Inverse folding.
């Protein structure tokens, strides 16, 4: 290449970029760059590789990796995933920038789902905080550690609303409610992306999985999703629209089909809705190999056909199906894909790279010093502990057994989960160090006075085997060997803290479960322990709602702690001993039994709602003959060490179809506390039947001991209307129930007539 051309190219690609570029400047730079790209270079941008080799060492001579390396050097790769560390990403970036004709930088993505090395609570737990600022702070921390480790892009947040506790990935999302998920989506995206994406301590978010993935039939991962337009428009899509509005840089599509069309090949979803109606200007990455799966779905004849369908449908980047790499150029040459469609995808990808500041300095995220200073420090752990505290949900507290005194004589800490320094880290744990969490046992020991005797007994065994390699774990290999020791310890201790639930590897991708009650011998042990000790506090550790009616009935106290990350034990002890007054609320309904799933509070009335089916002996009602309809703990439920009383509900119609809602919250206890005040509505008669209640707003208020606080909401048409089956937003005149309360079941109600 001649010298002048090299200079010209360098100017077009990198230009002088001292300051943050405006969107207009980015568009013009991208246009100039695309104008000089060959088809092969354009296709290269749509191709994403997994980093299967260790960049911190020499590239192995293995053919496949060699091919990948060669392609990076030619400029035939747009992004990579699982390439890590400041040093590793620098090596990979160098290959692209210093060897390819145009020197276009790679984008590096990674699954930072709830932290990079400092683990935050799993996403469902963060949602249980109902705390926008806390979730944002957690995401900002994850972004700081990720960005400082050379990576620019997280495949998070997962904002699939899930109604089914059997689905293992319910742990990765914000729960069963569309509104709460939308709030969390915004918090996470703003936390990751900050105000300036080109700051190396912010990273690009990826809203996933678009769409319908959580509606897998029977909760079995990857299964078919067959959803009505009403559910699609009103439940599944709103969090994704919120993600676009929050500025999500990228989207990921999903493995499932939705109403007969695999999402990766769904043009209506990706082009018409996402990029058209919502005006999304980032790019869509496929899920891992999902373009190839169009064949197994029975949607595409061969790889070329799959590539054509996916690309035309709006899937801009191919994650590891290796189909665009081999087929896209030919598809453009044969006219099956328009050059303008290719250009559009490439422009989207390049724009995100510009926004990340990669053209200004492709190595700006690769700073060893920063990585050492900012990852996994005392400060990051403090934030993780703060976030974790707010995610814990107090489900039961008979006779105010909790908080415990730090001067208590003796505590028996029982259960494999209580002793584990690994399980609280959760699944999708990125670069967490194995066995690095503060266990429940350690947290309790850290909190109590010197005089308190804390003793541990494993009691039950849920999993055995090599935790470094999850496929070597054996589940439920328990003959009850630990019972005797645990029972003896319980008998001689003042209080028992029994930790039960799930191993973190029982939730997550590919971990659907047909039985969501306590596995193995956990319940049996619980039943033995309550025979010998009246003060059994159950600490639940799990990633999905569990069916635990027996615990709910017989335990003295229950604290839901999810998988709460690096500082789990300390945060749990903060609540157990009253240093933090629990404020979490369930973002999912806890069922009574698995047969009720999918279970969600915002259900319909049906023509035959249950009134008194069990009492009157009749069976012709919408109910089960062997189970209640309701779950054990409702959506939005969570106790506090304070007592909150709701009164003086006042609902008024104000101008423009707006509704003003006021309620008085009184803290009748001696403990100051935080309450999440929830507002639900029901449109009583509508052209499409509406849920019996749905969350439209909430506020968190701190109320002093013995204090009162008036809380005010303003509901607008956006809260009161719904999407019809033509995806038009409608607000219909008539009667509305406005409900306010502490959870989705305990609500004050006023009915109001509205004309819009
Ligand atoms: C998951 C995605 C994830 C991707 C990359 C897929 O199996 O469904 O959520 O981001 O892998 O690791």
């Amino acid at each position: 290449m001649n010298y002048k051309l090299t200079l010209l190219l360098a100017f077009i690609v990198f230009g002088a970029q001292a300051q943050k570029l405006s969107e207009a400047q980015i568009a013009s730079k991208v246009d100039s760059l695309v104008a000089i790209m060959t088809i092969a270079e354009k296709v290269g941008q749509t191709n994403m590789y997994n980093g299967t080799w260790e960049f911190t060492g020499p590239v192995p001579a293995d053919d496949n990796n060699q091919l990948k390396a060669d392609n990076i050097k030619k400029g035939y790769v747009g992004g990579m995933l699982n390439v890590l560390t400041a040093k590793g990403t620098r090596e990979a970036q160098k290959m692209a920038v210093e060897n390819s004709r145009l020197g276009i930088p790679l984008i590096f993505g990674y699954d930072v789902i709830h932290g990079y090395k400092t683990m935050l609570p799993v996403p469902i737990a963060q949602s249980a905080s109902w705390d926008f600022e806390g979730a944002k702070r957690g995401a900002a921390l994850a972004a700081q550690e990720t960005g400082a480790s050379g990576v620019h892009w997280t495949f998070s947040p997962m904002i699939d609303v899930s109604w089914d506790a059997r689905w293992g990935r319910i742990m990765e999302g914000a729960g069963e409610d569309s509104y709460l998920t939308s709030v969390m989506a915004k918090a996470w995206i703003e936390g990751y992306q900050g105000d300036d994406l080109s700051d190396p301590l912010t990273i690009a978010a990826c809203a996933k999985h678009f769409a319908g993935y959580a509606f897998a039939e029977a909760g079995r991962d990857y299964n078919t999703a067959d959803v009505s337009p009403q559910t699609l428009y009103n439940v599944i899509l709103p969090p994704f629209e919120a993600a676009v509005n929050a500025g999500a840089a990228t989207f990921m599509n999903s493995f499932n089909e939705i109403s007969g069309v695999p999402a990766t090949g769904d043009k209506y979803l990706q082009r018409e809705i996402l990029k058209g109606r919502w005006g999304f200007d980032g790019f869509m990455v496929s899920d891992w190999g999902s373009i190839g799966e169009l064949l197994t779905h029975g949607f595409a004849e061969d790889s070329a056909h799959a590539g054509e369908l996916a690309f035309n449908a709006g899937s801009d980047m191919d994650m590891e199906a290796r189909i665009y790499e081999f087929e896209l150029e030919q598809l453009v040459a044969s006219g099956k894909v328009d050059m303008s469609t290719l250009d559009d995808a490439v422009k989207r990808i390049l724009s995100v790279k510009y926004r990340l500041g990669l053209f200004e300095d492709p190595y700006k995220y690769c700073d060893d010093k920063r990585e050492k200073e900012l990852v996994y420090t005392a400060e990051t752990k403090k934030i993780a502990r703060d976030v974790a505290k707010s995610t814990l949900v107090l489900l039961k507290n008979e006779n105010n057994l909790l908080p415990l005194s730090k001067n208590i004589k003796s505590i028996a800490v029982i259960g494999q989960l209580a002793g584990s320094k690994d399980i609280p880290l959760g699944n999708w744990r990125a670069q967490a160090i194995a066995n690095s969490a503060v266990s429940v046992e350690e947290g309790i020991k850290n909190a109590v006075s010197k005089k308190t005797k804390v003793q541990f007994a494993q009691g039950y065994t849920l999993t055995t085997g090599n935790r470094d390699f999850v496929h070597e774990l054996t589940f439920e290999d328990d003959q009850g060997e630990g019972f005797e020791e645990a029972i003896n310890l319980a008998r001689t201790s003042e209080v028992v803290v029994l930790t039960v639930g799930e191993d973190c590897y029982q939730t997550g991708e590919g971990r659907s479960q047909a039985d969501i009650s306590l596995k193995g011998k956990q319940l049996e042990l619980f039943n033995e322990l309550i025979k010998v000790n009246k003060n059994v506090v159950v600490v639940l550790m799990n990633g999905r709602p569990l069916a635990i009616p027996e615990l709910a009935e017989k335990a003295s106290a229950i604290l839901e702690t999810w998988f709460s990350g690096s500082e789990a034990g300390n945060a749990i002890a903060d609540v157990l001993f009253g240093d933090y007054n629990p404020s979490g609320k369930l973002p999912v309904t806890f069922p009574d039994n698995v047969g009720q799933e999918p279970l969600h509070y915002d259900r319909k009335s049906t023509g035959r709602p249950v009134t008194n089916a069990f009492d009157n002996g009749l069976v012709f009602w919408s109910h089960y003959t062997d189970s209640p309809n309701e779950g054990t703990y409702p959506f939005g439920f969570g106790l506090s060490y304070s007592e909150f009383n709701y009164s003086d509900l006042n609902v008024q119609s104000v101008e423009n179809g707006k509704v003003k809602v006021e309620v008085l919250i009184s803290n009748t206890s001696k403990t100051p506390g935080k309450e999440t005040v929830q507002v639900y509505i029901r449109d009583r008669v509508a052209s499409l039947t509406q849920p019996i209640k749905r969350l439209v707003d909430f506020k968190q208020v701190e109320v002093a001991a013995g204090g009162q606080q008036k809380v005010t909401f303003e509901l607008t048409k956006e809260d009161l209307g719904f999407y019809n089956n033509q995806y038009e937003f409608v607000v219909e005149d008539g009667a509305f129930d406005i409900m306010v309360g502490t959870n989705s079941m305990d609500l004050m109600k006023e009915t109001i007539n509205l004309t819009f």
